[in-house]
Amino acid sequence: MNETMICAVGNVATQPMYRDPESGASARFRLAVTARYWDREKNAWTDGHTNFFTVWANRQLAANTVASLNVGDPVVVQGRLKVRSESRDGASRAWADIDAVAIGHDLSRGTAAFRRTVRQDPGTAPTRSVQEADAGAQRPEPQWETPAAEPAHHQEREPVAVT
C-alpha cells in the first residue's frame, strides 16, 4: 500500500458541502494553504503562493466536518493525496484532492470546544441528540490524582536462578 499521506495546514476556503447517498455520507470543502516567509528586505512576513486542495471526508467525519467548520476557519487536515489530471481542447488541468483521515481546528491560531458525538448502531434511530446528552445527568469528574502509595510490606525474597 504505497499511498502519499500528507498533513496540510491552512484555511477553509468554501463552506463544507454534505451529501448522503446510499453509498455513505460524504462532505467536501476547498482548503487554501499559503506559504509564509520572512522577507528580509521588507523586514516583515510575506505571503507566498497559495495551493488549493479539495478535501473529502466520509462517514462520521463528513457529518462532524459539516457541523464544525466554516469558511475562514484555520484547520489541520491529514489524509491521502490524490492528484488528477485531464486534457481538454489541448489544455492540461490538474487537481489535488485529500481523502481526509483526520480534520481539526488549528489550535495555534485559536481555541475550540470539543463535543463528542453520540454513536449509534447502523440502522437504528438515534435515541437522543448530542445536545440532549450534554444537558442530561452530570457525569462524575474522573479521579485524576494518583492514589497515595500504600505502605510497602517489605518481604525478603529468595534469589531466583536463571539458566
UniProtKB/TrEMBL annotation:
Domain of life (superkingdom): Bacteria
Coiled-coil annotated spans: none
GO molecular function, one term: DNA binding
Residue ranges, compositional bias (Basic and acidic residues): 151-163
Keywords, alphabetical: DNA-binding
Region (Disordered): 117-163
InterPro entries attached to this UniProt entry: NA-bd_OB-fold, Primosome_PriB/ssb, ssDNA-bd
Protein known as: Single-stranded DNA-binding protein
Source organism per UniProt: Streptomyces similanensis
Organism lineage: Bacteria, Bacillati, Actinomycetota, Actinomycetes, Kitasatosporales
